[in-house]
Amino acid sequence: MSPTPDPEEFRRHVLTTLFVGGLVAGCYFLVDRPAVIWARDLDPQLVAVFEKITIAGSATPYLIALAVLYLVLRFSLRRAAAAKRALFVIAAIVVSGLTVDLIKPIVARWRPEAFLADPSHYGFTLFKTARIHNSFPSGHAATALAVACSLALFFPRLRVLWLVAAAAVASSRVIIGEHYPGDVLAGAWFGVVITLVLSRTDWFRDDLKASEQASLHVDDETL
């Protein structure tokens, strides 16, 4: 049975959502266009580095690797709890990815390359499916933060490492000219929120608690 929602926690989540929404809106009006022009003028060697970093935001390699890991853990090594954690990361990637992929054609935001070619091509056009219109939100940012948030839940002592890595992947989308900062912020928010929501479901909650308790036990032994 799911825990009874805490009114204070719900209020905090609503305020956080409004805050992030305000940041995205602020980016739209004040930050996104200058950021794209800034990124266009960056050193090509720096951009080439981030073109490699951005690969880590692609969902497909994670899903393939995690599916293989799940099968090995579940049926070869017979480690059901560990296999379920692999399944949790798969769920976080898939649900966050499907969410942003559903939003993209509905809001249909022009990509930065369209704005650079013609400054009138900025904003949301609504209900278009072409790649040039699917800038918002960033799917790579959603994937990177879903993976990082999942790993932070399982290995909380390394959460700074996971989040820094995810931030590098998310920022790469702006640096290589694929997204606006507002797109990245929105995608990252979806990745984090969906992962945390999944972690509270009955199917995964107990396993995550076990991971947290194991981590605390390790910390106590270290101390």
Mean pLDDT: 91
Q: Main β-sheet, in a few words? A: none
Uncertain runs are: 216-223
Q: Given the structure, what is the number of helices?
A: 9
Structural class, from helix and strand content? Answer: mainly alpha
What is the approximate shape? Answer: globular
What's the helix-strand series? Answer: HHHHHHHHH
The CATH class:
Mainly Alpha
Q: What is the count of distinct domains?
A: 1
CATH topology annotation: Vanadium-containing Chloroperoxidase, domain 1
CATH architecture: Up-down Bundle
What is the straight-line distance between the termini?
35 Å
How many individual β-strands?
0
Task: Please describe the structure with a list of short key phrases separated by commas or semicolons.
Vanadium-containing Chloroperoxidase, domain 1, mainly alpha, 223 residues
Question: Mind explaining what this structure looks like?
Answer:
With 223 residues, the chain is mainly α. The protein has one domain (7-222): Up-down Bundle (Vanadium-containing Chloroperoxidase, domain 1), CATH 1.20.144. Helices cover 76% and strands 0% of the residues. Helix 6 (139-154) packs antiparallel against helix 7 and helix 6 (139-154) packs parallel to helix 8 (181-199). The radius of gyration is 19 Å and the shape is globular. Mean pLDDT is 91; it is low at 216-223.
Give a quick precis of the structure:
The C terminus is likely disordered.
Itemize the secondary structure elements and their pairings:
Layout: H1 7-40, H2 44-53, H3 59-76, H4 80-107, H5 112-117, H6 139-154, H7 159-175, H8 181-199, H9 202-222
Helix pairs in contact: 1-8, 2-7, 3-4, 4-6, 4-8, 6-7, 6-8, 7-8
